[in-house]
Amino acid sequence: MNSATPGATTSIEPASVRIDHLEQGTSLWKDAWYRLKKNHVALFGLCAFCSVAILCLIGPYFTGRTYEQTEIGLKASSPMESIFLKTEAFKGGESKRSFVALSNLEDEFLDKTKSDRKDIVEKLARGGAYREGKITYEPSARRYLFGTDPLGRDLLTRVLIGGRISLAVGFAATLVSICIGALWGATAGFVGGKIDSAMMRFADVLYALPFTVIVILLMVMFGRNFILLFVAIGAVEWLTMARIVRGQIISLKNQEFIEAAISLGLPGHRILFGHLIPNVLGPIIIYATLTFPQVMLLEAVLSFLGLGVQPPLSSWGVLIDEGSRTMETSIWLLVCPAFFFSLTLFSLNFLGDGLRDALDPKSSKD
Q1: In this structure, is residue 10 part of a structural domain?
Q2: Does one domain contain both 179 and 95?
Q3: What is the DSSP code (8-state) at residue 276?
């Protein structure tokens, strides 16, 4: 019997139930980005690295100078030092213009006594002009934000160009390291057996050799080529990557989804590249962010040894080497490139630590 009260109306819920309260699906990458956004130190590292990379990429187009433009009158001028325009008139109305830094003005008047040189420099420093024969000296609005090097080249432009070289070496060598190490470690871990043992023993032999010595031998045998520098550094930085990937592959290859793929008759290369390697991208990305600064440090060491990029090109390692030789008299030549180099290394390490925590599958969303 129907126990409903007479006259009462009963509402029947529609078949399509409202699902607004249900949570949307997520993924490993969404969870990782959620955790990374909560790590302020890692976000600072990401923003700092992107800022430095963008500045090095487009900055040289706005400085108005080239990395190889020399001017002896501006040699070793300090940041924002006063610059003076030197105009030398010739017959026919022609003139030659050049620039002289305040610290180099006395060298222009070596034929005069010390007191006369001092008076001329003081007059120019107060904003006056000085004329001697057909040569005129007058204040100029030109300034160099980071100063100049011993050859009068703009240090800011050279630091930004050097950043391009260092970042390119780090990126290319890290990419080579990832390609070789991931493929080597994944193959060894998936195949297993004697092939695994032989491949990893070969890696152990290379591991026992000093990395710097191997790179130096490669550079000596094939010449100091800019492109070879990428390959040479990457060729000795893949060993740790191979070990990490191999361990991850071994832990995954006995999982149910791999056994299902094998039971379906999928070939080995499809299982390796379609199922195993995509599932170890997290550790690969984490180690790549930690390899990047290691590669940059190795390039800096090679530059200290004279095996880096060749003049007039420069990298941060070359500039730091040059600055260390004149740090007692021109400290800015060391501080400016060292600041950019240190900021990049710290930011990459902060980002790597943050990615390690964010991509950890055991982490829980708060």
Answers
A1: no
A2: no
A3: I
- Residue 2 in any domain: the answer is no
Residue 179 lies in a domain: yes
Reported as half-sphere exposure (CB side, CA atoms, 13 A), residue 301 has a value of 12
Taking only the tens place, the pLDDT of each residue in 309-341 is 777 788 888 888 888 888 888 899 999 999 999
230 and 102: one domain? no
Q: Residue 207: is it exposed, middle or buried by C-beta count within 10 angstroms (0-12/13-18/19+)?
A: middle
Share of the chain above pLDDT 70, in %: 87
**Spatial distance between the Cα atoms of 151 and 75, rounded to a whole number of angstroms:** 5
d(CA 187, CA 270): 12
Q: Which residues contact 228 (CB under 8 A, 6 or more apart)?
A: 218, 219, 222
Token pair belonging to 193:
């057996």
pLDDT tens by residue, 55-89: 999 999 998 888 888 888 888 889 999 898 888 88
Tokens of 62: 């706005």
| Whether residue 266 is found in the same domain as residue 339 | yes
- 128 HSE (CA, 13 A, CB side): 9
Residue 200 belongs to what H/E stretch? helix 193-208
Residue numbers in the chain where pLDDT is lower than 50: 1-5, 7-13, 15-17, 19, 22, 363-366
Parallel/antiparallel/unpaired status of strands 135-140 and 130-132: antiparallel
For residue 334, which amino acid is it? L
